[in-house]
Amino acid sequence: xxxxxxxxxxxxxxxxxxxxxxxxxxxxxxxxxxxxxxxxxxxxxxxxxxxxxxxxxxxxxxxxxxxxxxxxxxxxxxxxxxxxxxxxxxxxxxxxxxxxxxxxxxxxxxxxxxxxxxxxxxxxxxxxxxxxxxxxxxxxxxxxxxxxxxxxxxxxxxxxxxxxxxxxxxxxxxxxxxxxxxxxxxxxxxxxxxxxxxxxxxxxxxxxxxxxxxxxxxxxxxxxxxxxxxxxxxxxxxx
Length: 239
Hints:
Elements: H1 2-26, H2 33-39, H3 57-78, H4 84-95, H5 97-107, H6 126-142, H7 144-155, H8 160-166, H9 170-181, E1 185-195, E2 198-207, E3 210-217, H10 220-235
Antiparallel strand pairs: 1-2, 2-3
């Protein structure tokens, strides 16, 4: 009896903490807490827990579709001049696993997630998948309108506009611009340094022979992308 009471007491405290977390995260309270507990249950714990028989995989499937719709609507409204292909590219920047894992980490989802200790949340899509499942749970609990509002509120944790900007491939965009304007573009590594045991590379970008920008980074690829972005700013090219 005492053991049962302690288990009930612990569950009640966990439920109260989860309700509080979700209210702060969404901006409003939830109704069916069991949906959110399921959304935060990874399949890796099912075989180890006798009291669990379902994971968050179905909710993840649903949440993935709902998230796609929300972000598509946001982009369609915010960027009226983008073509269908351009909108698709922008959407992929937001709903990819890297962005979703990052957002889930920012909001502190891991502390409520039930998963096997053998899983490393930094090396898998576990957190991003759970975030999608959470969106699916919210949709079933409170409908699309509140899910949309809460989802966009969550993305404020990583600044949705900044995510879109960060993931622009300025090197590819610069090549495309040069093709359109019939200009030649070249990237050249002009210096290599070794600072504290790490190699650092300085890259310049030339447009039709003129040096337009230079950038330094710990990889040539990153330095080229930074130099391309600076070239965009120097040449005042609109993206």
